[in-house]
Amino acid sequence: MERLVDKGKARLLERKGLSNFNILKVKRILETARIRPSVNQIHSIAIKYNKSDAQVLLSWAVQRGTSVVPKTVQETRMDDNRQLFRLSETDMKIINRLAEGKGQIRFLDPRDHIGFDIFDESCDQPEEGDE
Question: Is the peptide bond before 110 cis (omega within 30 degrees of 0)?
């Protein structure tokens, strides 16, 4: 994206954000990016409500009528996952736009679709040059 900005093919937006990045990928971007992201879109909403990112996404899914079965073995997260709340219409629209931008792809293991494991915390993928 930085190259596109440099070539004038993309505008540098006032708010740059990340979505669906694991910890390793966020760290890599923060270490290497010349134009640093300033907003993780779901996290900015979570801060507003003083909730976790998971609580925001679970609340969004339930509020739009989607059945959700979150998976965790940690008792504290099980408790957190039951603490759902009502999102404002504005926040619902923001999250809906994020979901619509991805399209109607539904899968449990995205490796076959994108060529690497986005949830792998032991190795940062894709490696530089794999573009």
Answer: no
Contact 79, 56 (CB under 8 A): no
pLDDT class of 33 with cuts at 50, 70, 90: confident
Q: How confident is the model at residue 39 (pLDDT cuts 50, 70, 90)?
A: low
Residue 127 DSSP label: P
Taking Cα atoms as reference points, which of 119, 128, 111 lies closest to residue 28? 128
**Residue 45 burial (10 A CB sphere; 0-12, 13-18, 19+):** buried
**pTM confidence score:** 0.55
Asked whether the beta carbons of 55 and 85 are under 8 A apart, the reply is: yes
Q: What one-character-per-residue DSSP string does 43-98 give?
A: HHHHHHHT--HHHHHHHHHHHTT---------HHHHHHHT---PPPHHHHHHHHHH
> How many Å is the Cα radius of gyration of the chain?
17
pLDDT at 81: 93
For residues 105 and 113, is the Cβ–Cβ distance under 8 A?
A: yes
